[in-house]
Amino acid sequence: MLLSSAYCPPISWFALAARDFTLSGDRVIPSAVVLEASENYRKQSYRTRCRIAAAGGVETISVPIFHDAPKMPIRSVRIDYSTPWLVRNERAIDSAYRTSAWFDYYRDSLYNIMESGEESLFEYNLSLIRYFLQKTGIACEISLTDTFVKEAEDDFRYAIDPKKPDTVLRDLGIEKPYFQVFSGKYGFKENLSIMDLLFNEGPDSLSFLKG
Question: Which residues are registered as beta bridge partners of 2?
């Protein structure tokens, strides 16, 4: 399965990563994800942003980058730390999830990764992806592309995009609600960042992702 890099990716990203993961008895068959590492950076995508359920509704938090050239290889993109974006992001996450059931359990370990100072956007996102795979319980082997191809088998690189409808959860048969802190005020908001599922459902996140 071919997926793109993303910052604290949407739930649909992890639902795909969990699709072929099998756990039965004492046997674990991990899924396999090939992460697109050879594309050019795509603006206004999940590569630098994610969505959370905040007190004021769905909120987007993002990672600023240096725009060094019109077309930048994704592995050359550098994070811009000249503004306090990390403080703002953590405050937004705190505000949105501090009353959720599992936030205190995951907060410090997540923020340790977010505060790593990693300059490469790709490596930063990869560290977060590995963290969320581990915490949701998805056994997944990740490899990276070494060349770019326009089309590939089992290709979901551009199926998960903030600018167009995402039908992944519906197609996998797991389009369903779970508890959210502000659902009483705004109703259930689907396919937010994996943070939303993890902070609200904790170890039960895997049951949701596997249907």
Answer: 34, 155
- Would you say residue 29 has pLDDT above 80? yes
User: Is 26 a residue whose pLDDT tops 90?
Assistant: no
> Which residues partner with 60 through β-bridges?
51
Binned at pLDDT 50, 70 and 90, residue 152 comes out as: very high
Per-residue pLDDT at 190: 96
Return the number of other C-beta atoms located less than 10 Å from residue 211's C-beta. Answer: 13
* Cβ partners under 8 Å of residue 175, min gap 6: 169, 190
- Give the DSSP letter string of the chain: -EE---SS-BHHHHHHHHTT-EEETTEEE-EEEEE--SSBP-TTSTTSEEEEEETTEEEEEE--B---SSS-BGGG-BB--SS-HHHHHHHHHHHHHTTSTTHHHHHHHHHHHHTS---BHHHHHHHHHHHHHHHHT--EEEEE-SS--S--TTB-TTTS-TTS---HHHHHT-------TTHHHH----S-BHHHHHHHHGGGHHHHHH-
pLDDT higher than 90, residue 25 = no
pTM, rounded to two decimals? 0.96
